[in-house]
């Protein structure tokens, strides 16, 4: 006789059920195969010291990433588009055979947004829009096209790579976490992109962001499931979790004038009960409470 689960089942019981579902004996799903493929093909989120051959400082790069958040948020692009734009820019800097001056950063950033939008967005930004609304007519369409060819050839036409947002999407779907944990994890990774020299892989970064979000929101019962699902142990992630935590709590003091993430993504840093974020839209506020 089949017994229906009680509507009053505790979170602990739910988590124990998930642990059984995620056991090594469980059949692999398509999502598991995708995750395995992402891990096998991933590289560091940011090539180590990608700016060392150029006159562009890490502060200039951070300002560009902050501006990318603003632009892509205003045009309704996906999170994947943002992470891909940053990835293309950093990989281009790492592989460019010529030293780039600060004056080239704007056209590179604008063009990386253009490339990423074409690759990820259902309704990508058109060249005319990029020229007029993103570049504010300071760059010609011909210059944007020329820079596009230069960038994609420099990165060997390898535009699509495993992204932090892709791995995170797998994890939150697999774990079926509350929206507050999903959103907190996203924000942790977005803010991390403003920092320079993030020498970790997408799977490490996404797993660590989820762990940090669970801790911040006091959802500690989820942590064994996260470790099981990601294939990482707590000691393997602890250093990166601490680093991401430091990046978030020090963000406003480190980047005093960078407000795009908070302004366009609906949150403030810090919360009433020690959370990393306070959400400023009604749906997220209800979930956080």
UniProtKB/TrEMBL annotation:
Coiled coil: none annotated. The keyword Ribonucleoprotein does not apply. Keywords: Cyclin. Residues 66-153, 166-246 form the Cyclin-like domain. It comes from the Eukaryota. Belongs to the cyclin family. This is Cyclin-like domain-containing protein. It comes from Fabrea salina.
């Amino acid at each position: 006789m089949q017994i229906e689960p009680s509507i009053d089942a505790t979170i602990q019981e739910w988590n124990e059920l998930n642990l059984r579902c995620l056991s090594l004996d469980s059949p692999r799903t398509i999502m598991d195969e995708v995750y395995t493929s992402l891990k096998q093909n991933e590289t560091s989120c940011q090539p180590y010291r990608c700016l060392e051959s150029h006159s562009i400082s890490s502060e200039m790069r951070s300002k560009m990433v902050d501006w990318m958040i603003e632009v892509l948020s205003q045009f309704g692009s996906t999170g994947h588009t943002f992470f891909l734009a940053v990835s293309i820019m950093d990989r281009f800097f790492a592989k460019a055979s010529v030293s780039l001056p600060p004056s080239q950063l704007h056209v590179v950033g604008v063009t990386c947004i253009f490339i990423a939008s074409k690759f990820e967005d259902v309704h990508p930004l058109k060249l005319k829009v990029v020229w007029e609304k993103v570049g504010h007519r300071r760059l010609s369409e011909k210059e944007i096209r020329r820079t596009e060819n230069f960038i994609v050839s420099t990165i060997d036409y390898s535009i699509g790579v495993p992204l932090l947002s892709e791995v995170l999407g797998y994890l939150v779907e697999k774990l079926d976490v509350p929206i507050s944990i999903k959103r907190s994890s996203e924000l942790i990774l977005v803010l991390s992109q403003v920092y320079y020299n993030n020498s970790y892989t997408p799977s490490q970064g996404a797993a660590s962001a989820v762990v940090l979000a669970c801790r911040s929101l006091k959802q500690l019962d989820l942590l064994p499931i996260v470790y099981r699902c990601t294939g990482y142990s707590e000691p393997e992630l602890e250093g990166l979790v601490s680093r991401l935590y430091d990046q978030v709590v020090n963000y406003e003091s480190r980047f005093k004038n960078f407000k795009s993430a908070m302004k366009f993504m609906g949150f403030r840093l810090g919360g009433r009960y020690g959370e990393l974020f306070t959400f400023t839209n009604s749906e997220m506020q209800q979930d956080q409470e």
